[in-house]
Amino acid sequence: MLDLKEIRKNPDKFIELLNRRNDDFSYLKDLINKDEERRELIGDIESTKAKKNTVSRKIGEYKRENKDPKPLFEEIKSIGKGVEAKETRLKELEEEITHSLLMTPNLPLETTPIGKDETDNNEIKREGQIPTFDFNPKPHWDLATDLDILDFDRGAKISKSRFTVYKGLGARLERSLLNFMMDLHAKDHGYTEIIPPYIVNKESMIATGQFPKFKDDAFNVGDDDKLFLNPTGEVPTINLYRDEILDGKDLPIKYTAFTTAFRKEAGSAGRDTRGIIRQHQFNKVELIKFTKPETSYDELEKMLQNSEKVLQVLNLPYRVVDLCTGDLGFAMRKTYDIEVWLPSYNTYREIASISNAEDYQARRGNIRFKRDKESDTEYVHTLNGSGLAVGRTVVAILENYQQKDGSIKIPEVLIPYMGVEYIK
RNA sequence: GGAGGAAUACCCAAGUCCGGCUGAAGGGAUCGGUCUUGAAAACCGACAGGGCAUGUAAGUGUCGCGGGGGUUCGAAUCCCUCUUCCUCCGCCA
After folding, report:
1. What value does the mean pLDDT take over residues A17-21?
2. What domain range is A83 assigned to?
3. Average pLDDT for residues A92-115, to the nearest whole number?
4. Is A64 a catalytic residue?
5. In principle, which of A5, A130, A277, A369 could form an S-S bond with A272, CB 3.0–4.6 Å?
6. Does nucleic acid strand B have an atom less than 7 angstroms from the CB of A46?
7. 3-state secondary structure at position A372
8. What percentage of chain A reaches a pLDDT higher than 70?
9. Chain B bases closer than 7 A to any CB of the protein
10. Quick check: A123 and A347 in contact, CB under 8 A?
11. A173 in a structural domain
């Protein structure tokens, strides 16, 4: 959530930056007017209450001293008039303002490339060797079906389309990857492991920015509009500290979370229908940080490196892009995407997203810290990154490590986890 | 799922029946001090935290006794509702 006090100081600046997201945010001006009215009402109501409280206290005193409080009752009657209507109006205004702010995305950074969609993202670097094949490489769904390690038809039968059964060494590859990733981040990169609840409440979804705007993307559990399947490990993990005040000495706090993510993919009908690129359910290893404001961008760079490391060790070719304003996520000020090379697509596809929300989520979730006992509370900065999306890593390995005979060579680092050198 | 009980400041805990000197007793922890070569102990002192409004600020006001609502001039205390935790029973990995 943006800070209305800051918007008030320089509304045009906010509107200009937000408009780079290719939408119209001029309603913020109206919001300022509402806030003006709101503050005026608060002043009114509170001074009335102050008067009332004084007389009320006096009534207590009179009673104790056995004096007749009747005249005070007359007095108090005239004080309270009209407050009720004001309070109703105030509540209405507050709801409108809060709702508007919850629907307003984070401010892109001044330096974020301006653009319409992913084609305008700014490529920062490419790493790794794109494999060349002396045969016709197959897409992962063909490889996996031939090897009998993914079963799309039965996944759809059991559940519905975009659900897949992992089988045999396919299941083991998934499990090996997530263990490998968790080990790397927990043991080498100093993140604390987390396995959070996969079902989260509305408040949690609001804090990280999924709700209210993107409610249609979430699976509601129990149909009572209270609990939802988490769409990313970011939601439960950031919400660890919702409504808490952290000790500045403990920052930065670093977590790596293993979660299964669930998404309706409401707006993606017809896209990526083959294979496991886009599933309703997929595993993810997530990186989360809570930092002081002044270090969050350093921590973002480190997180990007931690995330890249997975691809480097797996020896997968990838590139890093700086997302443009049109592709930037709702809650984020800056996002790097890591895209892995997929031979069957003959292009790079997103496998990780590393972002700094600054204090946007912290405000929504009321996550604060104190530098020391005397200092004021401040909002933390929250960062999250994939470390990585496990399913898409499976895709990348299948496609990049495929052999002429249709078998898959296992990357060196995974052999201890897999117990075999090839899937065949 | 059934039956009970509970939620008070960093922690423990009184107050709730009988509404007003409770902007919340008492203890512990913490911080500062005295004493001591140093420490412990003892003693003295400090000690809600946070939001909002206003103000350059000091401050002032307002809201805070799990959350929300209500009754009342006035609510920790009465009423409604939700949440969480505990105990027992049932079921269960």
Report:
1. 97
2. 4-103
3. 94
4. no
5. A277
6. yes
7. coil
8. 100
9. 20-21, 23, 49-54, 61-63, 73-74
10. no
11. yes
Which of A40, A68, A103 marks a domain boundary?
Answer: A103
Q: Name the residue closest to B73, CA to C1'.
A: A56
Question: Mean of the pLDDT values across residues A277-300?
Answer: 96
CATH number where A149 lies: 3.30.930.10
Q: What is the CATH number of the domain that holds A37?
A: 1.10.287.40
For residue A323, what pLDDT band results from cuts at 50, 70 and 90? very high
* Any strand B atom closer than 7 Å to A409 CB: no
Supply the ipTM of this predicted assembly.
0.86
Q: What is the pLDDT of residue A415?
A: 98
Q: What is the average pLDDT across A236-249?
A: 90
Q: Which residue has the higher pLDDT, A236 or A74?
A: A236
Judge whether A353 counts as a catalytic residue: yes
Contact A228, A221 (CB under 8 A): yes
Of A72, A103, A134, the residue that ends a domain is A103
Measuring from the CA of residue A72 to each C1' atom, give the nucleotide at the shortest distance.
B73
Give the CA A228 to C1' B89 distance in Å: 32
Residue A350 annotated as catalytic: yes
Q: Is residue A109 part of a domain?
A: no
Q: What is the mean pLDDT of chain A?
A: 93
**Distances A136 to A141, A270, A344, A402 between C-alpha atoms, Å:** 14, 26, 9, 10
Integer Cα distance of A170 and A397 in angstroms: 11
A361, A103 in Cβ contact below 8 A?
no
Q: Which residue is nearest to nucleotide B50 (CA to C1')?
A: A377
Active-site residue identified among A38, A263, A333, A363: A263
Q: Characterize the bridge pairing of strands A377-379 and A367-370.
A: antiparallel
Question: Is the per-residue pLDDT at A380 higher than 90?
Answer: yes
E strands in A272-394: 281-291, 318-322, 334-342, 347-358, 367-370, 377-379, 381-389
